[in-house]
Design brief:
Helix content is about 50%, strand content about 5%. By secondary structure, it is mostly helical. It has a two-stranded antiparallel sheet. The chain has a two-stranded parallel ribbon with strand order 2-3. β2, α2 and β3 form a beta-alpha-beta unit. It is globular and about 70 Å long. The chain starts with a strand and ends with a helix. The chain binds a DNA duplex (15 and 15 nucleotides) through α13 and α18.
Length: about 425
DNA sequence: TGAAATGTTGGGGCG
DNA sequence: ACGCCCCAACATTTC
């Protein structure tokens, strides 16, 4: 079966490819796994109706999620806003009807006449497509630290199950950034290289077979449900990446430089793009220091450097750097969301904005705004030997390492005061 | 999946 | 033996 590489508008291309194959080969039909973000649902719906109009059969399947977002509902038929009841219902549903794991059908070779795509301008030749990517960041970091593809995804999963047997407790150690106790499967899930339905089935079987490891196995499946929950929320709130879910936060004085959303026009730093004043300048510097891992806060810098160097970051540390950016530095969560989108290999359309709104306190069922992480305490609790921090910030005890840009206690107080203001506004 | 402030309790040192 | 103080340890409240 030939692989066709194409560049251009996917809706036009898929329709055109299907028509050409249908005419030349008598194509039986077109099938795909569903996408759940509104722009993609619309594109796929458009393809579907067009193909049907041409008499080409179309069938879409679930596959990217454990549950179809619209099937998990409260007793009164509305979507969930809170994770705990959501996960309860989703889990019952999954227990009653486990998600189907589709075997991949064996493909038979076909003969494709040379001239089928002769005049199709969107078709790329493989060698041009596979040429060295620019900038070299992609080759330096991604090829060293990521192994994309289905075989590695399965290998990683089986190693993970083994680790649950070895007595290393997932529930206790997945919060310790120096330990490789997490599954590491998120990039593979992100790119559809392993199916959550398969993970669910195999992990549930594993839990039955190994009662001693069952609690850890279910703690892992709970993380998969967070992923489904983020997509459940995005399905009902497609604008989640741009807008505060809790609109009171539109009044919050975030430092916010661009991508003006109407609700944020009152931001104290909304004018920063034009002619940055001293205040705005300082916030831009702080944002840049956060991105580079030069804030002077060891755990924050370690996380941000890990992210830049490897394309990933330990989950516990994500919460700490997110809390630091949005609360202590007072910078709009969308700056964090955009940076993670650009640098994090597992960032997807749902989890990334969902978790940023969670940490910033402006999402449904978010961490309350006053829940501010103290990165100095977090490092004592979760990296007491300094293994993680020393790995990424080896110079932290030398004069080369900068002083913190803002004081931990002072910035906490400032954040709480600002939060108190919008609470009062919302009441009044 | 917080942290800090505030309140409570109980043991030990000491006059 | 007793009351007093101190303070660690734990619990509760507040942000």
């Amino acid at each position: 079966m030939p692989l066709i590489l194409a560049a251009g508008d996917p809706v036009e291309i898929v329709i055109d490819v299907a028509r050409r194959l249908s005419e030349s080969l008598g194509l039986a039909g077109v099938t795909w796994h569903r996408r759940y973000h509104k722009p993609f649902r619309e594109a796929d719906a458009c393809i579907k109706t067009a193909l049907q109009r041409y008499g080409i059969g179309v069938k879409s399947h679930p596959g990217y999620l454990l549950t179809e977002p619209w099937t998990v509902q409260t007793g009164s038929g509305t979507p969930f806003k809170v994770f705990t009841p959501y996960s309860k219902t989703a889990q019952e549903q999954l227990h009653l009807s486990p998600p189907e794991v589709f075997p991949v059908p064996k493909l038979r070779g076909i003969y494709l006449p040379d001239d089928v795509f002769a005049d199709a301008e969107y078709v790329l030749d493989v060698e041009a497509f596979m040429g060295a990517p620019e900038p070299s960041w992609a080759t330096d970091t991604l090829t060293k630290h990521c192994t994309p593809g289905e075989p590695h995804a399965h290998e990683r999963f089986s190693c993970f199950l083994d680790s649950l047997l070895s007595g290393q407790s997932y529930k206790e150690l997945n919060d310790v950034p120096s330990r490789a106790a997490t599954s590491g499967l998120s990039p593979h899930l992100r790119f559809g290289e392993i199916s959550p339905a398969y993970l669910w089935r195999e992990t549930a079987r594993f839990a039955d077979a190994h009662p001693a490891a069952a609690a850890d196995a279910w703690a892992f499946l709970r993380q998969l449900l967070w992923r489904d929950f983020a997509w459940h929320r995005l399905y009902y709130l497609p604008e989640m990446a741009e807008k505060n879910v809790r609109s009171q936060f539109n009044e919050f004085p975030w430092a916010w430089s661009s991508k003006a959303d109407p609700g944020a026009s009152k931001s104290a730093f909304a004018h920063m793009d034009m002619e940055p004043d001293e205040d705005a300048r300082q916030h831009l510097d702080e944002l840049a220091a956060w991105q580079k891992g030069e804030t002077g806060i060891p755990l924050v810098d370690a996380g941000m450097r890990e992210l830049w160097a490897t394309g990933t970051m330990h989950n516990r540390v994500r919460m700490v750097v997110g809390s630091w950016l949005t609360k202590n530095l007072g910078i709009h969560w969308r700056h964090g969301e955009e940076w993670f989108w650009d640098t994090l290999v597992d960032a997807d359309y749902a989890s990334n904005p969902f978790n940023w709104q969670w940490v910033a306190g402006c999402g449904d069922d978010a961490a309350p705004y006053f829940r501010i992480f103290n990165p100095l305490l977090q490092v004592e609790k979760f990296d007491p030997d300094g293994l993680y921090v020393n790995r990424w910030v080896p110079e932290r005890h030398t004069p080369l390492y900068p002083e913190p840009m803002v004081d931990v206690k002072e910035s906490r107080k400032t954040a709480l005061a600002a939060y108190n203001d919008i609470r009062n506004v919302a009441k009044g």
